[in-house]
Design goal:
Its main location: membrane. The protein is an alpha/beta fold. It has 31 helices and 14 strands. The structure holds uridine-5'-diphosphate-glucose (UPG).
C-alpha cells in the first residue's frame, strides 16, 4: 500500500532582496546611456564635416561596449536566489537515496602531487552516505605508478580512517587538513570518551604520517621494477600506453558489521599520439563510459537465466526464466543444455559466471564456468536486440540485478584532484536538490562554489573568485550531474510541452550515439528510461575487460561523444561549454552553498601559474564564443533561454570588458565603489578588492590578449590549443630556491620568461615613461597648454602604474621575483614601436 505520509520538503528557494544594488545598477546604466548619447551626438552631429577625431570614434565604441557589458551583468545579477537544504529530513528516506559515482581527475604527478590526490580521495571515501551506494574513480592522465601506489596505500589507510571519522564525527575528512590542527577538545576533557578520542587521534595521526612517508618516498622506477600491481606501467609512456584499470578496493569485500567505504578504482585511459585525447573532457568521458559497466551493487541472491539467442528467440512457447542459486551454476548449465542445447547453455553459463564472479572468493562459482569467457556471447544471451524486450520480461525487482552488467549510478560527482570534500554531508545536501523538486528539470546539475583552502590572505593574485563565483554555471569541479543529462537526454517537461515528452531512444539511435559497446548501450537505456532510484550494480572485477574496451582512444570515432554526449570537446573550458549544452537542452541547474563549504580546493600562487591559468580559461572562453557553440546560436537554434544566453555572454566576454579607464570620472568612481561594495557584501577585505581589481588589469593585458590570439590562430587553422595543467601549490619543491622564496613571501608576484609577461611589462614601462615625459613637459613648457598633459592623463597613467605595481617591483626584484631581462628587452622594443607608431599618426 502506498504511503500516505507527506514527505517533508528537502529544499527551499529563497529569493535574495537586492533593492539597493538594483538602484545602483540603474544609476550606472543611466549615466552610461547619457554619456553614450552625448558622445554619439558629438561624433555624428557634425555630419562628417569636419570628420570626428579617431580617438572620439574609439571612445564611442569602447563606451558602447562597456554599456553592453553593464547590461549583461545587470541581467546576471538581477534576481538571485539561495537554496536552503535540509539533509536531516533525508533520514527517513535513506532507502531512496540514489547511487553516486564520484570522479576525480589528475593529470600530472609533478604538478598535482599524488599525496594531494590521495587526500581528496580519502575525503570522498569518508563522506556521510551509504558506502555501498558510492564508488570513487580516479582518472590518471599522467599514467603514473606513483599515483596508483598512493591510491592503493590510501585505500589501505581508509580501513582505519573511515571508521575513525564516523565514530568521532570528524568535520574535515581530508587527513592532511584534519591533522594540521590540534584535536578538537570536547566540553569535558577528562571523561572517558574524550580520553579514548585523544588516544585514537594520536594513533590515527601516526598512521597518517606513515602513509605520507610511504607516498613521498615512492619512486617510479622501483615501483615498476617491483612488478605485481605495477607491472602494467613497465612500458607505459605517458602519452602512449594501453588502458590500465586497477580495482584498489572493492566494496563488496566488506563483511557484515564493517563501517565499509566505497569502492576505489584507478583508471589510466589508453593514450596514443595518433589520437587527440581531449584533455579533461576526454578523461571524464572515458570514466563515464567505463564506469557504466562497473558501478557497485549488492550481490545477487539468485540468478534468473533464459537463453534468448537469435536462434532461440522465435521458439514457442518462449523459453522460460529459470531461477538458480549462484552456487549451482553447473546445474544451471546442465538444465539449459538439456532443454535448449549446448550453445545456449554455454552462453547462459557465461552470463551467469559474470554475475557470480563476486561469489568466487567464497568458492561459490563452479570452476567449469570459465568467468567472462566471451562477454559478447554473454550479451547475446542477456539481451536480444531484435526484440528489445529483455527488461520487460524480467521479473520486477530482479530487473536491475539481472542486467547487472549494464546498470550504473544515476548521479555523478566530479572533483579536481586538489579539491577535497570539506563538508561530510555534501552528498546529502546535493540530494536535497536532486530529489527535492517536483520536476527533475530544475536540477539537471547541482553546483557548489569553488572555494579555496589555505588561500593567501587578500587574494593577491585575484583568482579566488569569491565575488565572481555566484551562479548558474558548471564549474568543472564540485558538481553533481544526473547521468542522463550527460548522455544528452532532454528533460521530460510536462508543463511546458504537454504531449511532447520524448520516448526512449531506440537501440539503433543509441548505438550510433554511444558507439559499438553493446553493454554501454544497454546500460544507458536503463539510465535514460529510469529515474534516480534505479539500483546500482556491481561485479567490478569481471567487468574490467569491457571497461577497457570503451577506454580505447579510438572508441569515440564516429559517435556523438564529445558533442551531444558526455563532456563537450573543442574548448579548454570544457566545464562551461558542457554546462551550456545542458542548459541548451532545457535543463536547469541549482547552486548550493553550504556551511561549512562543500569542497575546498587550492588556488595557484605566483605570477606564472596565475597568468597561465587565466590564459587557458580565456582561450577556452574565446573558443566557445567564436564557434558554433556560441550561446547566441544556442539560444536561437536550441532551448537556451534568453537570460541564460546573456548570462553566458557575461562569462565569455568577461576577458574583453575593461571599463575603468575609458569612462569619465563619475563613472570611474561609481564603478569602483560599486565593485568595492560587492566585495564588502561578501565580507572580503578591502585589500582583496584592490588585489582583484589590479589583477583583472594584469590578466586582461596578458593572459586574455594571448588567449584571444591563440584562438584566432586556431580558428584560422594555424595552431591547436593545449591544456596547460595548473601547478598545484603543494607541488613546489620546498628545498629549492623558488620554494624558499615562495615560503618567504607567498603573496608576492613571481615571473618567468613566458611571453605572457611581455605585454604587461610593456604597459608598465609605457606608463612610467608617459608620467616622466609628462612631468618634464609640465616643467619645461609651463603655461603652454597645448604642450602639457592634463590632470586626467596623470591620473590615468598613475592608476595604471598602481595596478601594474607587481611589475614595477619586478624591475628591481631578484630571482623569480625579478622580470627576466629577455622579457624586459622585448617589452622595451614593443614600447618603442608603439611610441614611434603614435607619433606618426
Ligand atoms: O589532460 C588533462 C588536463 C587536465 N586534467 C584535469 O583537469 C583538472 C583541472 O585542471 P587544472 O590544471 O587544475 O585547471 P584549473 O584551472 O585549476 O581548473 C579549473 O578550470 C578547468 C577548465 O575550465 C576546469 O575543468 C576545472 O574543473 C576548474 O577547477 C585537474 O584535475 C586535472 O588533473 C585532466 O584530467 N587531463
Amino acid at each position: 500500500m502506498a504511503s500516505t505520509k507527506k514527505k517533508l520538503q528537502l529544499q527551499e528557494r529563497v529569493p535574495l532582496g537586492r533593492t539597493a544594488w538594483k538602484l545602483a545598477d540603474l544609476a550606472v546604466l543611466s549615466l552610461l546611456l547619457a554619456l553614450l548619447a552625448h558622445r554619439a551626438t558629438s561624433v555624428l552631429g557634425s555630419g562628417g564635416d569636419p570628420p570626428p577625431p579617431w580617438h572620439w570614434l574609439a571612445a564611442l565604441v569602447c563606451e558602447g561596449w562597456f554599456t553592453l557589458m553593464w547590461l549583461l551583468n545587470m541581467n546576471a545579477k538581477w534576481s538571485p536566489v539561495r537554496f536552503d537544504t535540509f539533509p536531516e529530513r533525508l533520514a527517513e528516506r535513506m532507502d531512496e537515496l540514489p547511487a553516486v559515482d564520484m570522479f576525480v581527475t589528475t593529470a600530472d604527478p609533478e604538478l598535482e602531487p599524488p599525496l594531494v590526490t590521495a587526500n581528496t580521495v580519502l575525503s570522498l571515501l569518508a563522506v556521510d552516505y551509504p558506502a555501498h551506494k558510492l564508488a570513487c574513480y580516479v582518472s590518471d592522465d599522467g599514467c603514473s605508478p606513483v599515483t596508483c601506489y598512493a591510491l592503493r596505500e590510501a585505500a589501505e589507510f581508509a580501513r582505519l580512517w573511515v571508521p575513525f571519522c564516523k565514530r568521532h564525527g570528524v568535520g574535515v575528512r581530508a587527513p592532511s587538513v584534519y591533522f594540521a590542527s590540534d584535536p578538537e577538545r570536547g566540553s569535558s576533557p577528562a571523561d572517558d570518551e574524550q580520553a579514548e578520542f585523544l588516544r585514537d587521534w594520536a594513533a590515527m595521526k601516526s598512521e597518517y604520517e606513515k602513509l605520507v612517508t610511504r607516498i613521498e618516498n615512492a619512486d617510479e622506477a622501483s615501483l615498476v621494477r617491483q612488478g605485481g600491481d605495477f607491472a602494467e606501467f613497465l612500458d607505459a609512456e605517458r602519452k602512449n600506453h594501453p588502458t590500465i584499470i586497477k580495482v584498489l578496493w572493492d566494496n563488496s569485500k566488506s563483511t557484515p558489521g564493517d563501517v565499509g567505504f566505497p569502492s576505489l578504482i584507478y583508471v589510466a585511459r589508453e593514450k596514443n599520439p595518433r589520437y587527440h585525447h581531449h584533455f579533461k573532457a576526454g578523461a571524464m568521458n572515458v570514466l563515464l563510459a567505463a564506469v557504466s559497466h562497473s558501478a557497485p551493487t549488492p550481490l545477487p541472491p539468485a540468478i534468473w537465466l533464459r537463453p534468448c539467442t537469435p536462434l532461440l528467440a522465435g521458439l514457442h512457447p518462449p523459453p522460460e526464466f529459470r531461477r538458480f542459486a549462484p552456487s549451482s551454476l553447473r546445474a544451471a548449465r546442465q538444465a539449459i543444455s538439456a532443454a535448449y542445447g549446448l550453445p545456449a547453455a554455454r552462453q547462459a553459463a557465461s552470463v551467469a559466471s559474470n554475475l557470480c564472479a563476486a561469489h568466487q572468493a567464497a568458492g561459490a562459482a563452479s570452476a567449469s564456468l570459465r568467468p567472462a569467457a566471451t562477454h559478447r556471447s554473454a550479451t547475446a544471451c542477456r539481451y536480444s536486440p531484435s526484440r528489445q524486450r529483455w527488461a520487460a520480461d524480467v521479473p520486477p525487482g530482479l530487473r536491475t540485478r539481472v542486467s547487472a552488467l549494464l546498470t550504473n549510478a544515476p548521479i555523478m560527482l566530479n572533483v579536481d584532484c586538489d579539491m577535497f570534500a570539506n563538508n561530510p554531508k555534501v552528498i546529502l545536501h546535493a540530494m536535497c536538490l536532486l530529489m527535492g523538486f517536483d520536476d527533475e528539470v530544475h536540477s539537471g546539475f547541482v553546483q557548489a562554489p569553488q572555494k579555496f583552502y589555505g588561500a593567501i590572505k587578500d587574494d593577491p593574485f585575484g583568482n579566488q573568485m569569491e565575488v565572481k563565483f555566484k551562479g548558474m554555471f558548471y564549474a568543472g569541479t564540485g558538481c553533481f550531474h544526473r547521468r542522463k543529462v550527460i548522455y544528452g537526454v532532454q528533460p521530460a517537461i510536462r508543463d511546458l510541452e504537454p504531449g511532447k515528452i520524448k520516448g526512449s531512444p531506440s537501440y539503433k539511435e543509441l548505438h550510433a550515439k554511444l558507439g559499438s559497446s553493446r553493454e554501454l548501450v544497454d546500460s544507458s537505456r536503463s539510465i535514460i528510461s529510469g529515474n534516480l532510484f534505479s539500483a546500482p550494480i556491481a561485479n567490478i572485477p569481471c567487468r574490467i575487460e569491457a571497461a577497457k574496451e570503451v577506454s580505447a582512444c579510438n572508441y569515440e570515432h564516429h559517435t556523438c561523444w564529445g558533442h551531444e554526449v558526455g563532456w563537450v570537446y573543442g574548448s579548454l573550458t570544457e566545464d562551461i561549454l558542457t554546462g551550456q549544452r545542458i542548459h541548451s537542452a532545457a535543463w536547469r541547474s541549482a547552486y548550493f552553498d553550504t556551511d561549512p563549504p562543500a569542497f575546498l580546493g587550492s588556488a595557484p600562487t605566483g605570477g606564472p601559474a596565475s597568468l597561465t591559468q587565466y590564459k587557458r580559461w580565456t582561450t577556452g572562453l574565446f573558443e566557445i564564443l567564436l564557434s558554433k557553440n556560441n550561446p547566441i546560436l544556442s539560444s536561437i537554434l536550441e532551448r537556451l533561454e534568453f537570460r541564460q544566453c546573456l548570462g553566458y555572454l557575461v562569462v565569455y566576454l568577461w576577458p574583453a570588458s575593461e571599463p575603468s579607464f575609458i569612462v569619465p570620472l563619475a563613472l570611474f568612481l561609481m564603478c569602483n565603489i560599486y565593485d568595492f561594495m560587492e566585495y564588502m557584501d561578501c565580507r572580503v577585505s578591502a585589500r582583496a578588492w584592490w588585489n582583484n581589481h589590479r589583477m583583472q588589469r594584469i590578466y586582461s593585458a596578458s593572459a586574455w590578449i594571448l588567449a584571444f590570439l591563440t584562438v584566432l590562430l586556431k580558428t584560422l587553422g594555424l595552431s591547436e590549443t593545449v591544456f596547460e595543467v595548473t601547478r598545484n601549490d603543494q607541488s613546489k619543491p620546498d628545498a629549492s630556491e623558488a620554494g624558499a622564496e615562495a615560503a618567504a613571501d607567498s603573496g608576492r608576484f613571481t615571473f618567468d620568461s613566458s611571453p605572457v609577461f611581455i605585454l604587461p611589462t610593456a604597459l608598465t614601462i609605457l606608463n612610467i615613461v608617459a608620467i616622466a615625459v609628462g612631468a618634464w613637459r609640465v616643467v619645461c613648457f609651463a603655461g603652454a597648454a597645448e604642450f602639457g598633459p592634463g590632470a586626467g592623463e596623470f591620473v590615468c597613467c598613475g592608476w595604471m602604474v598602481l595596478c601594474f605595481w607587481p611589475f614595477v617591483r619586478g624591475f628591481v626584484g631578484k630571482g623569480s621575483y625579478g622580470i627576466p631581462w629577455s622579457v624586459t628587452l622585448k617589452a622595451g622594443m614593443l614600447v618603442f614601436a608603439f611610441v614611434h607608431f603614435c607619433r606618426r599618426i
